[in-house]
Amino acid sequence: MEQRIIDALKTVHDPEIPVNVYDLGLIYKIDIVDEGKVNITMTLTNPNCPVADALPRQVSEAAKQVEGVREVNIELVFDPPWSTDNMSDAAMLDMGLF
Predict the structure, then answer these.
(1) What is the pLDDT of residues 26-42, one digit of tens each?
(2) Distance CA 82, CA 45 (A)
(3) Has residue 18 been placed in a domain?
(4) CATH code at position 16
(5) Based on the structure, what is the number of domains in the chain?
(6) CA distance 56 to 47
(7) CA 14 to CA 16: how far, in whole Å?
(8) Which residues fall within 8 angstroms of residue 82, CB to CB, at 6 or more apart?
(9) Contact yes or no for 58/23 (Cβ under 8 A)
(10) Which DSSP string do the residues of 53-92 spell out, in sequence order?
């Protein structure tokens, strides 16, 4: 189920950066508590992000689209702070940082 959730999260993009939230490194943890309940710990590129309300909601909705997921809890954290070190190699290449 975790891989299906990851695939769903890869459909959510940060509107300011043309990379999905998973490869951008905004998803810190996916915890499948029991059948159908998922806790996701995530961050934003900065605490003053203009999509601070919308992005976690989009992540939750994407995860809920996965068959078998009935409840999603999002924990938004800022420690540790996000940095480009969180990005996947593919995201770094897409952004020309490699």
Answers:
(1) 999 999 998 899 999 99
(2) 6
(3) yes
(4) 3.30.300.130
(5) 1
(6) 13
(7) 6
(8) 25, 26, 43, 44, 45, 46
(9) no
(10) THHHHHHHHHHHTSTT--EEEEEE--SSPP-GGGS-HHHH
